[in-house]
Amino acid sequence: MLILASQSKARRSMLEAAGIMVESLAPNVDEEALREGLRSDGVTARNVADALAEAKAVRVSRRIGPALVLGADQLLALEDGSMLDKPESREDAKAHLRLMSGKKHKLFSAAVIADQGSPVWRHIDIATLSMRQLSDAFIDQYVEAEWDNIRHCVGCYEIEGRGAQLFSDIKGSQFTIMGLPLLQLLDYLRVRGVMPS
User: Which residue numbers are catalytic?
Assistant: First the structure.
């Protein structure tokens, strides 16, 4: 049994589809305050994602005792290094898509496993996505049609759905794009005996 320090349905679904028995617990971490504090200190997107994943895993691990607890986080960085957050409104999503249109961005997906309050494993994976040039009409139609699916997505897309239409090229794992470096996680769970090898 793996404890997921998150209420993310997408990550839980990914884990269950891979055959992992998982229980979800809310980490009760003020992610926004932690993220903003790290950003104001000039921490890179990669390291912010790692720190948030660790904070979630450690917080739940300290609460429940001996068990493997997975914390995960994902951040999106534009070519200039600036980071985008999840959209707060449809207009916010449209603005994000206009900003990314015709450009590349990187997704940093971090996973940390904690055991008895300490991190014991971590992996940060990167995917580079090239967004095609999007017309304003396409952006408007896409956001209106997909808002309920993308409102909790940092890049305003679900790559496994209609979001695939946004891209001209993708380098990296689809699992990473969906928010979890799943293959590396499975390797570690086999080492720990959580899954058969």
Answer: 73
Mind listing the pLDDT tens digit for each residue in 116-168?
999 999 999 999 999 999 999 999 999 999 999 999 999 999 999 999 999 99
- Contact (CB, 8 A) for 105 and 131: yes
How far apart CA 61 and CA 115 sit, in angstroms, is 6
Crossing angle of helices 90-100 and 136-150, in 10° steps, is 120
pTM of the model: 0.93
Compute CA 72 distance to the chain's CA centroid, rounded to the nearest angstrom: 7
Question: Which structure tokens are listed for 135?
Answer: 């017309």
- With residues binned 3-state (H G I as helix, E B as strand, rest as coil), the percentages for the chain, rounded to 5, are 45, 25, 30
Taking the C-alpha atoms of residue 22 and residue 141, their distance in angstroms, rounded to an integer, is: 36
Furthest C-alpha separation in the chain: 52
Q: Looking at domain 2-191, which of 3.40.640.10, 3.30.930.10, 3.30.980.10, 3.90.950.10 is its CATH number? A: 3.90.950.10
